[in-house]
Amino acid sequence: MGEQSKKICVVTGSRADYSLLRRLMRTLNDDSKFELQVIVTGEHLSTEFGLTSNAIEEDGFDISRKVEMLLSADTASAITKSTGIGLIGLADAMAELDPNLVVILGDRFEMLAVSIAAYFARIPIAHISGGETTTGAFDEAIRHSITKMSWWHFAAAEEYKNRVIQLGEDPSRVFLVGGIGVENIVNTNLLPKNKLEKQIGFEFGKRNLLVTYHPVTLEQNTEQKDFQAILDTLSELKQTKVIFTFSNSDVGGRFIQKMIQKYVLDHQDTSIDIPTMGHLNYLSALQYVDGVIGNSSSGISEVPSFKIGTINIGDRQTGRLKADSIIDCKPTKKSLQQALKKLFSEDFQTKLLTLVNPYGDGSATDKIIDVLRTNSFPNSVKKCFYDL
């Protein structure tokens, strides 16, 4: 009699993390050594964010459990309550599915609820993208908290691996696999420009920018002022078209979305807003834009692979490892104007030609699967603090 398949439960809370996890999920699903379980929660189950759980099913995955948690508000109180509601549903899901391992990516509040539910159920956790720092967002504390509840750690860079160990995790359980976003790029057949334009209803111009801006959650009510500075700067650009993607469901995210919608209404000839772009359209668009503006992690970890610049605004991503293509600037009109001048400069564009993305070579899934196949799954989540 062969060895019984290990039940591995992958949890996804948004189109953003699903696009990164999809190849890993497919590999697990096709491997007889594993039995894939899928829990969807958060933005996936919200019509406001495109009800993207449908895309998971269209990709051929069976959803094991759907856990509603997202309230239709983005206040601090609503996010706290959403986390609590999610924890209740996830507790039931963990008990019913009883996986041998839970796989989670990143650092959002949905994943905090997942890690608590799994840890209290004494189910080991494999955490992807630990050890990173983002001092301007809740994600910083959430990420490190998840690290302390996790058994295996899959880090995107050497310094992130070292930071996980610094948090007291045994080096034998910490693995350098590279950025899973880079892998996504390498393994995706990107769309040609004419097909992408038809798909998103947007014709690229002489110059093009893609904007993704999320709330800086550790700051108090800065969203309107900071994002207005971005919009004011963009409105003065000549011969430049702008693609906006919507903010996430963090505190203040819906306010940013309303500002985007108003701007696009006033600038219909030069801009478009796409609430749920999807990974294929998003990555394909990066081939044809001159740069990315905002404060998303994608601008730091994925965009450099396209040898284009990222204007990284404010403190949300402060602390992350950055390629030479990242232009840090303050959320002020003057700083943004200086950053755009640098982005379009001949010297900067020349340097981009030899750019190397520090987030690896695109083999993260293969390295993660190798760890799961060659290491014994723990029978207990007990672990000792590793002192340096």
How does this structure look, described?
With about 400 residues, the protein is α/β, with parallel strands linked by helices. The longest helix is centred in the first third of the chain and has 22 residues, at about 75-95. It has a seven-stranded parallel beta sheet, sandwiched between helices. Strands 10-9-8-11-12-13 form a six-stranded parallel beta sheet. Helix 12 (about 295-300) links the parallel strand 11 and strand 12 (about 310-315). About 40% of the residues lie in helices and about 15% in strands. It has two domains: about 5-185 and about 360-375, Glycogen Phosphorylase B (Rossmann fold, 3-Layer(aba) Sandwich), CATH 3.40.50.2000; about 195-350, Rossmann fold. It is built from 15 helices and 13 strands. It is globular and about 60 Å long. Helix 1 packs across helix 7.
Q: Termini, distance in Å?
A: 44 Å
Count of structural domains: 2
CATH topology of the largest domain: Rossmann fold
CATH architecture of the largest domain: 3-Layer(aba) Sandwich
Strand content: 15-25%
Number of DSSP helical runs: 15
Taking the sheet with the most strands, its summary is: 7 strands, parallel
CATH superfamily of the largest domain: Glycogen Phosphorylase B
Mean pLDDT: 91
Strand segment tally? 13
